[in-house]
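Supplementary Data S3. Sequence and structure tokens for construct A.
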Amino acid sequence: MKYLMICASVILALTVAACGDGQPEAAVDESAEDTGITLELLFVDSIGVELGDSNYVLGSIEASSHTLDGNILILDRPACCVREYTTGGEFVRQYGRRGTGPGEVVNPLSMTRLTDGHVVMLDMQTGGLHTFSPDGEWLGVTVEIINEPILWITPAESNTYLGTHNTFDVEDGQLFVTAVVGKFESDSKEPIITYWENTFPFDFIDFTVLINESYFANVFTSDREGNVFLARRDTKEYQITGFDVNGDVFVEFKLDTPMAEKSEQEIIEEAEFWNTRARNMGANGELNYMPDPFRWKIHSMGIDDQHRLWVRRGTEETPTFDVFDYEGNHLFTAELPGITGHSGLLWEVHVDEEGILAWSLDPPDGYQILYIVELADQ
């Protein structure tokens, strides 16, 4: 759900194993079965304080990742920077700062660490995709992006990454949006592989269509060999498609999970929450977003160091993950115990080959904390 917060500012400003060679064998149209095995995720450490050293006071966590050597990266939108910490929570360095000069950003929307070690951060107000070396040196704006952002960026092989890109065109007086999920090189905004594409008319009055048909239409992830997993955010179906490094489908599978209806109060609170977040980010007016009465079956995905695909269920209030191998076999379920009720839906969990990170979008103590998480049996 963090995606809606980022999307709000963009819209209102508008304008368990894979093959070693990175080429999995095909296993298409499979139906996975829940193994019934449930493991616990444990909080083992944290970063973030309410008051004190500014390097540890987090304004708003928009994204997290890891460096090549396993350090932790946090994109703090209000601070206009990415901060790096050791796994023990010690501050290492900062990427970027507030401003409009070289290496400075104003409203960073997304961030990731590429497989080649570079850190990229998107800020349309200062020109586009800022690239930093692994030691924090600003290398320039490598892709000019000022009105059609590439969002939800996640690394693939080498210097490539995945993202959602929207373009706007007018035909016969009607504005159309073309949304794609594609693979991009770090110096270009044209996809080298397109995994999904959707064109639809845009209504300036109803932003719900734009959100559901483009910004929040899909979730995706990739490993460092370029294998990609894509899923539609759907309230009725839980289905995942895997693509190899060349963009060819190698697996499709489903999992039978029940639909989950939102309460009337949950719908009201969700709309109010995101409108408040949009205003806090500088939006003028209401988002005019109408939440779906049912929850998405799939919330987000990630891949760990054992080439296991972690799929978070959007239907569960407690953060819950189905963990699969690359053939679509369900290995186990993992849960973050102790996080219950509607507040659990406002937690984000990032899984990559270096570990698991988690944080709340609406922290009960009023300040942001990033938690380091591990499986209980590891």
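Construct B, processed identically:
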Amino acid sequence: MGKNLSRKIKNCWLEPDICKREEVFDFCSEYIDFLSECKTERECVEYMQELALENGFIPLDTFVKEGRKPSRGDKILVNHRDKALIMFVIGEESIEKGINLVGSHLDTPRMDLKPSPLYEDQGIALFKTHYYGGIKKYQWTAIPLALHGVVIKRNGEKLEIVIGEDPGDTVFTITDLLPHLAKEQMEKKASEVIPGEGLNLIVGTIPREYDSDGKNIKGSKDMVLELLKNRYGLEEEDFISAELTAVPAGRAADVGLDSSLVGGYGQDDRVCAFVSFKAIMDIKDPQKTCAAVFADKEEVGSMGNTGMQSTFFENAVAELIDLTTGDCGYLKLRRALSNSKALSADVAAAVDPNYSDTHDKENAPRLGSGVCIEKYTGHRGKSGGSDANAEYMAMVRQVFNQADIVWQSGELGKVDLGGGGTIAQFLANYGMDVLDCGVPVLNMHSPFELASKADIYMAYRAYVAFYRDMK
């Protein structure tokens, strides 16, 4: 058995045999690049798909069109609407006997542009936004923001836009009130300091032209429209068929004098997405079929046709069963899903020394103490969460111990303070065993989240062990 039989709090950095600092730092250097380049779910899917194809993954559609039967070791890729992704590695056993699945999500809190975003006020051109996911609105003001997304133009052309990331590139921002005039603002509750309708991006201030009397007749909004037309061929109506989002500008970075942390936007849940991606890429010839699911829309309840409440995952499994057996009946699909074992790979709320009274310290995840398993999530009284049974907890624990994984257990803060959900509940709806398992994070849902490099690397090792050894 492994080194975690004692439930004493361990620290990965003090386990040099299983957490080699050079390996950890090299692994997280690649992660920092990923986090810096992939700030939307579309960008994540594009990044992952490109690397997967380079490493032998084949689109499921290719198998279907060729009538090709998958065999052990085949690597199969499913791109769902460029916003969700599934990666399979086919095992020796029948898919009906179940899949070892690690599921994460690619979406993160952000500022989405409204369908008709552009307006002018006080000579300033602005974009209206509608925030996405649970945020503290005041954290998104007075910081540099970049614009990422796609626009489908009137003629059907798809235009990909990234503004604010390259050196010397222009950025955007949302204003806040100066302290000298903020007496009334400072007396409000934190949730009311910045209203949702006040999260508007400054995009220009130069008016287009004046009339002969020097009176402004075409203002900064007109100038912005002219710039969009000249640079991108965009018309104002094209915003209707656009997915444009404002995200924190700039790269992720090392944090601390010892460079032990990664700081950056979107680590909930792209840290778990990245490590599960790296894990599935390293699986070869497994006994059971393995799957990595990268879903969308978790931050808003997993709704929509790319969220985990849709059928995109079970549809892919049905296709695989049909290819391998020649007949995917309803019963075969239900057996495969019910017999599966899953880790819901989502971040945990690490205890913060500045706010330690929000956690039960005996059940609080800590930075540097390894990957965190959470028997249940949900809100007060476990509402809306999945609750893993004792038998499955023991199975995961045994897999991790035998693989010398540094792990810890925790829950999302004190019982009556709130809580949150993951995709675990939707995987559990299939009847499969599910356990939340991910990286502890500080500053969750803020523009700059923090995670320990040791925990990130240990999560990767944990997911590899789960794929390889879960029976």
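Residues 12-108+265-469 form a domain with the Aminopeptidase fold (CATH 3.40.630.10). Confidence is low (pLDDT under 50) at residues 1-6.
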